Amino acid sequence: MRSFGSDNHSGIHPQILEAIAAANTDHVFAYGEDPFTTRITEKFRELFGPQANAYLVFNGTGANVLALRALTHSYNAIICARTAHINVDECGAPEYQTGCKLLSVDTPDGKLTPELVATQLHGFGFQHHSQPGVVSISQPTELGTLYTVEEIRALADQAHQYGLYLHVDGARFGNAVAALGVSPRAMITDTGVDALSFGGTKNGMMLGEAVILLRPELSKNAPYERKQLMQLASKMRFVAAQFDAYLKDDLWLRLAAHSNAAAAYMAERLAEIPEVQLTQKVEVNGIFALLPRKAAEKLREDYFFYDWDEERGEVRWMCSFDTTHEDIDGFIEALRKALKA
User: CA separation (Å) from 55 to 13, 64, 78, 117, 276?
Assistant: First the structure.
């Protein structure tokens, strides 16, 4: 099966599998007290600066919740786009686990702006209102759009002006870095981001994400929060070993650049088909399009993919680190047949 449903549907990159096997020798201390985790912590500091502290976790929801727990008290509110993963795809875990209220904002392209955030910046000091504490953005967004470095800096400046933190959900962070051609430090540390969820699972890893905290005071309670959230791996060396291979020689960027390029090629092929209308600019590895309902049903006989907005007939197609031109050409051929049928 070849799927365009999710970049979670692909397997594990061979170099990462090899790294897991290579780590499976001898005994080491558990719970992150191993040389693999120590080494990857230093690698993250090379990427984000000496003040960065990294906390490895099992999955993306765990990463987002741990990052937000580090930034908030239970009486805070978290401002996000209505389409944000923390709002629509995490089963209420951020609210349940932090106690915070999510203040979701409608956006045309998944991106918050200072003007949109400003609509939620009120009620400060009023004990009956949840106190705004965090602005959370996704880079790239759930609609496959990108914030520029300047846009992130503007949101960080605004957040800090009001005493808030800025969190970035980077489940597909590699795709954003590859697409913009900037360094992780320039995009995150230098813009004033306070916490980042650094993804790996969608880009060739087996499992595991990292929470990067950029202010030393935010790490005071993070180890205990991680344990309480059941995100502390006993055999953490096998998560760390994956990141070791993932970051070595910029494998993570090469894999992300490949999936971005695959989506760009797919968008070029789709432009040949007048019945298909793209709804968002294709900037990373996701494509959002309007497709006649009957054609979508027929196409699903050969390829799995998700509806994004069933009422509008909008679908989402995702490319992975191992998507080939042959995969895409086969999909386009099946799509043409579905439209004729």
Answer: 22, 12, 21, 28, 42
Residues 132, 221 within the same domain: yes
Q: Which amino acid is at 224?
A: Y
- Record the pTM: 0.97
pLDDT exceeds cutoff 90 at 323: yes
Interatomic CA distance for residues 262 and 311, integer angstroms: 28
Which residues are CB-neighbours of 331 under 8 A, at least 6 positions away?
2, 4, 266, 303, 317
Pull the structure tokens for residue 323: 């998507």
Domain assignment of residue 279, given as a range: 251-340
Position 341 scores a pLDDT of: 87
Which residues lie across from 81 on neighbouring strands?
105
Q: What is the mean pLDDT of residues 288-303?
A: 96
What mean pLDDT value characterizes the chain?
A: 97
Q: Which of 246, 238, 218, 171 is nearest to 32 (CA)?
A: 238
- pLDDT for 1 equals 80
Residue 302 and residue 227 in one domain: no
CA 273 to mean position of chain CA atoms? 30
Distance CA 143, CA 2 (A): 22
Strand partners, 314: 290, 309
Average pLDDT in the 61-72 region? 98
Q: What share of the chain is helix, strand, coil (3-state, %, to 5)?
A: 45, 15, 40
In sequence order, which ranges of 12-148 are alpha helices (DSSP H)? 14-23, 35-48, 60-71, 85-88, 93-98, 114-118
Domain assignment of residue 5, yes or no: no
> How large is the average pLDDT for residues 5-24?
98
Which positions ≥6 away from 150 have C-beta within 8 Å? none
